[in-house]
Amino acid sequence: MTIVQLEYLLAVDTFRHFSTAAENCFVTQPTLSMQLQKLEEELGVLLFDRSRVPVRPTEIGKEIIAQARVVVAESKKIQEIVQNQKQELSGVLRVGVIPTLAPYLIPLFITNFMEKYPQVQMVVQELLTNEIIEKLNHEHLDVGLLVTPLEDKTIRELPLFYEAFVAYVNKKHLFADQQTIDPAELDLEDLWVLNEGHCFRSQVLNICNRGGKAIGSNAGHLDYKSGSLETLKRIVESQHGLTLLPELSVLDMPEEKRKLVRLFQEPQPLREVSLVVHRSFLKKRLVEALKAEIMAAVPPEIRNRKKQQVVGVK
Question: Would residue 113 count as lying in a domain?
């Protein structure tokens, strides 16, 4: 039994297709299949039911795959021990970021990080929360940047800062004449929200349901489903109603558009932004360096804010 065989085993479990697994392991399919067959012969069990499409692990295969993940992760720690002896950070850091955070947070720190650690190759993907968690569990990502708490026992959450929600209102909306907004005044029939699947949507609905009116449909003839906060902003400007935005998204907004931003009354509803890693995560020094650069780049008024009214993700 070899580490390489176990890595092939995990690849087939991830992709449920021998050809795709081979491509991702940078070997031919016959090579991968032969190595897995040798592993099965050595163990004396069948690891996959090849009669099904896609292939699936057998019952004993599931147990062996779970243990293989532990063995492969532990073997990679040897490489990390060696890396930690070197003064210079290097390697690949794969980061998953949710769409309502990526365009506003990544530009704040990415340039400084890359200049400070030129030997690090950072690979960043915009993904939904459930996709990030899945990729962390399958070791396709090293770290996630998302909103917590998630109450998922497979991951470890490292809170970074607490970001306020703000309202972005049409200039003719009644909130345009108010300096601050009480969440209880929110009317979901007047609110533009993201598509289902975005944690930001769930948080917005949670804010409204704390005292706002019952869920309805946006008034008027336009029913627009969007996965982009920037699109929702344009709709508010050109149509009617309001939408909620994360605080970071309005920091560099032109003065003319900042006039449409309204804060919530204290205690402001907040979202907890965290680095999330697998329980047995590797690349600790890289993750620590990433955390330090993010915190240095976040504005002090956000970085120093205390945890108060954190809105649930679900």
Answer: yes
CA-CA distance, 51 to 37, in Å (whole number)? 15
Q: Is the pLDDT of residue 109 over 50?
A: yes
pTM of the model: 0.74
- Whether 178 has a pLDDT exceeding 70, the answer reads yes
- Is residue 127 domain-shared with residue 202, that is, in the same domain? no
Instruction: Identify the CATH number of the domain in which residue 129 sits.
Output: 3.40.190.10
* Residue 262, phi then psi, degrees to nearest 5: -130, 135
Mean pLDDT for all residues in the chain: 87
**DSSP E strand boundaries for the chain:** 48-49, 56-57, 91-97, 120-126, 143-148, 155-169, 180-181, 191-192, 242-246, 261-264, 269-278, 309-310
Using pLDDT thresholds of 50, 70 and 90, give the confidence band for residue 214.
very low
Task: Tell me the torsion sign for CA atoms 153, 154, 155, 156.
Answer: positive
Same domain, yes or no: 155 and 166: no
